[in-house]
Amino acid sequence: MKQKKIVLPKSGKKNRASISYQFPVLLEEDIDGGYVVSCPFFEGCYTQGESVEEALKNIKEVILLCMEELEEKREIFSFPNIGLHLVEVKKQYA
Predict the structure, then answer these.
(1) Closest-CA residue to 30 (of 11, 57, 18, 48)
(2) If 55 and its partner were Cys, which of 22, 35, 78, 82 is the partner (CB 3.0–4.6 Å)?
(3) What is the DSSP letter of 86?
(4) 90 vs 6, which has greater pLDDT?
(5) 27: nearest Cα among 42, 49, 8
(6) What stretch of H or E contains 47?
């Protein structure tokens, strides 16, 4: 499948309308407590929080930082073909 590509608009304009994007995130309970959350669309895009709500709030901020970095570099942002699939695995027990 072909990846959808967009160029993020340059930031810093006053009174510019906002654009909403939706990204999938992976939320996992941390063994030391709290939650770790990541966004597979951006390399190195992850954070944590003491609660689910805090972790999700934090990942939104990190995603915005990743988007701003791409804006500054004027790089083309590609939406990778990422899907969640369930696979069945059968294990034989003697």
Answers:
(1) 48
(2) 35
(3) -
(4) 90
(5) 49
(6) strand 46-49
Question: pTM for the complete prediction?
Answer: 0.69
CA distance 40 to 17: 26
Would you say residue 32 lies in a domain? yes
C-alpha angle 62-32-40 in degrees, rounded to nearest 5: 30
Q: Is residue 26 part of a domain?
A: yes
How many angstroms separate the CA atoms of 66 and 40, rounded? 12
Q: Residue 47 pLDDT more than 60? A: yes
Q: How many CB atoms lie within 10 A of CB 63?
A: 18
Joined together, the tokens standing for residue 61 give 């901020």
Could you give the number of structural domains in the chain? 1
What CATH number did the domain enclosing 52 receive? 3.30.160.250
